[in-house]
């Protein structure tokens, strides 16, 4: 065997472990989900032993299921409110304002924002449950009001605010890096010409960072659409009022025993994620 052939063989040998891992933990679960999504597979009973193929029956059932449509609507609201608008806006404002703040304020704010992001989901969910609890919650104690059940009366608002607080650190870091690409000379010239506030951002800053804006929006949209943390705060309640799609899938699979139906909805969620990714990538390519 010549040197080139030996090099190719060694390269393939190095790739084999990665290919095996990807196959076992990514490709196989995806194919298995596609398969059971076409069956009436259940956790218990006759259909758990010998499931029947139903083709696209699960998809048709989902499209006619009012609970699924409710979960889809809540997911769109959750993603738009907490990621596309909330995390984007707060992350940019922090990245824009903190460099102009004093060193103490900048360090403290960045530390608090990063701490909210790096803490485990179970920990931050417990902290917010303790904050919003009706009987012993910190917020009610501060307001002198011991009767407001925030997670029951305003579940989606609570989830949106929670996710904005928890996830803005990534947007802040990405925009902090992006803003370094804006030439200081252009900023100074625009200020000398009278540009301030939104006009300065629109005319000078955003043309340099629009690619970063699209990249950030794509990532936080996908992360939020697949976020299971809302279950830790509200469990999807009350009465499905905060049951976003990941929670709905969990309830259908492990509470309702409908694994086939839940798998089909998972595939639908995957298709939506892919469509969003393609849309953002096309916008990014067009802006490049």
Short descriptors:
MetI-like_sf; cell membrane; transmembrane helix; transmembrane; MetI-like fold; MetI-like; mainly alpha
Q: What order do the helices and strands come in, and which of them pair?
A:
Blueprint: H1 3-36, H2 46-49, H3 57-63, H4 66-97, H5 103-118, H6 121-132, H7 138-143, H8 150-153, H9 155-179, H10 184-192, H11 197-225, H12 230-234, H13 245-255, H14 259-287
Average pLDDT, to the nearest integer? 89
**Any guess at the CATH architecture?**
Orthogonal Bundle
Q: What's the CATH superfamily, by name?
A: MetI-like
Give the total of beta strands.
0
Output the structural class.
mainly alpha
- Would you state the CATH class? Mainly Alpha
Give the helix tally.
14
Question: Beta fraction of the residues?
Answer: under 5%
What does this structure look like?
The protein has 14 helices and no strands. The chain has helices spanning 3-36, 46-49, 57-63, 66-97, 103-118, 121-132, 138-143, 150-153, 155-179, 184-192, 197-225, 230-234, 245-255, 259-287. The longest helix is centred in the first third of the chain and has 34 residues, at 3-36. The protein is globular and about 75 Å long. The mean pLDDT is 89. One of its GO terms (cellular component) is plasma membrane. The chain crosses the membrane at residues 12-35, 71-99, 111-131, 151-169, 204-225, 259-281. Residues 73-280 form the ABC transmembrane type-1 domain. Its main location: membrane.
């Amino acid at each position: 065997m010549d040197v080139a052939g030996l090099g190719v063989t060694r390269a393939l040998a190095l790739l084999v472990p990665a290919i095996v891992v990807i196959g076992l933990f990514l490709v196989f679960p995806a194919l298995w989900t596609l398969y059971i999504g076409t069956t009436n597979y259940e956790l218990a009973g006759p259909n758990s032993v010998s499931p029947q193929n139903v083709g696209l029956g699960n998809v048709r059932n989902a499209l006619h299921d009012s609970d699924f449509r409710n979960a889809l609507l809540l997911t769109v609201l959750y993603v738009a409110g907490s990621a596309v608008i909330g995390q984007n806006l707060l992350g940019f404002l922090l990245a824009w304002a903190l460099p102009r703040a004093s060193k103490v304020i900048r360090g403290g704010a960045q530390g608090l924002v990063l701490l909210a992001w790096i803490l485990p989901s179970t920990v931050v969910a417990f902290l917010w449950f303790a904050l919003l609890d009706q009987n012993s919650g910190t917020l009610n104690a501060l307001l002198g009001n011991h009767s407001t059940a925030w997670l029951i009366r305003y579940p989606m608002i609570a989830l949106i605010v929670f996710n904005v607080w928890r996830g803005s650190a990534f947007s802040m870091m990405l925009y902090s890096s992006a803003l370094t690409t804006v030439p200081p000379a252009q900023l100074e010239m625009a200020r000398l010409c009278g540009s301030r506030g939104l006009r300065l951002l629109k005319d000078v800053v955003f043309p340099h960072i629009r690619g970063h804006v699209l990249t950030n929006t794509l990532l936080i949209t996908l992360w939020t659409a697949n976020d299971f943390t809302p279950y830790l705060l509200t469990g999807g309640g009350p009465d499905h009022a905060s049951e976003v799609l990941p929670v709905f899938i969990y309830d259908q699979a492990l509470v309702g025993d409908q694994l086939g139906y839940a798998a089909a909805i998972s595939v639908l969620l995957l298709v939506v994620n892919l469509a969003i990714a393609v849309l953002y990538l096309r916008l990014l390519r067009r802006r490049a």
